[in-house]
Amino acid sequence: MNEVLEIRNLTVHYGLGTRGVRAVRDVSLTLHRGEVLGLAGESGSGKSTLAYGVTRLLPPPGVITGGQVIYHPQNGEPFDVLKLTDRQLRAFRWARTAIVFQGAMNSLNPVHTVAAQLTDALTAHEPVLTRSQKAARVREVLDLVGISAERLGSYPHQLSGGMRQRVMIAMALVLRPEVVIMDEPTTALDVVMQRQILSQLVVLREQMGFSVVFITHDLSLLVEFSDRIAIMYGGRIVEQGPARDLYTDPLHPYSAGLLGSFPPLRGPRRELTGIPGSPPDLSAMPTGCSFHPRCPQAFDKCRSRLPVLGPPALATEEREVACWLHPGEQQGERQVLSMPR
To answer: Is the pLDDT higher at 151 or at 268?
Structure first.
């Protein structure tokens, strides 16, 4: 698969100087064309900050202090999104990369109808379209997400939570972008509605061919839906690989802890274990591996040296992990350390 979006060593701070907090730390990820990349982690791990940094939607005092976001169009030369002018950025957003926010009620304008909000995006990016062409596009995209055209004149408060979320997805797809970033879009919905929306999203991706970055704290939700999964902790990627491999054989203790915090989708019942302790304070990160204060398998090296994300010594090239339990050649180690008893 060809890459469509490359994140290279992206670093994001909230505030600058001695009181600044580094919320995203040298993150590198690649999204391939037509792929669903899941991004999982606890609240405060940096998932949403990463998404807003990639789309340059960071609210103050957030600021990108390093890295690149390289977009690869189907036709044309790759370019760095972080170097676009304001005018170029307005043309890029929604047309090339769209985002579905977590709270649909807060993201939709309460004083405008569904039709008006969808039409605004078309007017801003495709002004050559006639009124009838815009209306046809709006009806088409609403039909794709399972909403009747009768709802075109409805206001957000007149829709259910699931319908509002579908309108947000329709708004993200109305300009047919190549990348859709979804920031916990089903968190406030019941499990039945979650399943309906995710199943519909799978069908839409097959029909339209866009790539997805799906952000959630629920790792079990990503296993069936994603092609690959990346795990974030303390502003860093600590593990990434094919969804099935990560589900059946998590390499990082944090990934295993996340999987143990949710009931399995299939198979026998098992006791939920959870993860002891709390996520780290980003303004006072622990030395070494940031997970070591909560890790049941931590040893001396974990407390003093930061592991580098890379292929472990005994795994396929598709997998990467930042853990001293699975050191690879990129960390100067060729033998796998035995787990402490």
So the answer is: 151
